[in-house]
Write a structure and sequence with these properties.
Order of helices and strands: HHH
Structural class: mainly alpha
Distance between the termini: 23 Å
Number of helices: 3
Largest sheet: none
Strand content: under 5%
Radius of gyration: 12 Å
Helix content: over 70%
Length: 52
């Protein structure tokens, strides 16, 4: 079994959806929806900071 960063964050920090879906974030970028992309990236950073 491969251990991922997302699995570590879920187990250590009890965050249900710690990292955004790459395809969704790429779609935000392609569509030019920088507000949604920025919000998702901020959420990812908060999850990573919680792990730290």
């Amino acid at each position: 079994m491969l251990l991922t960063t997302e699995m570590i964050i879920r187990g250590s920090c009890d965050i249900k959806k710690p990292l955004g879906d790459e395809a969704t974030m790429a779609a935000y970028l392609a569509a030019g929806d920088l507000v949604k992309l920025a919000k998702r990236l901020q959420t990812d950073l908060k999850s990573l900071y919680s792990l730290y």
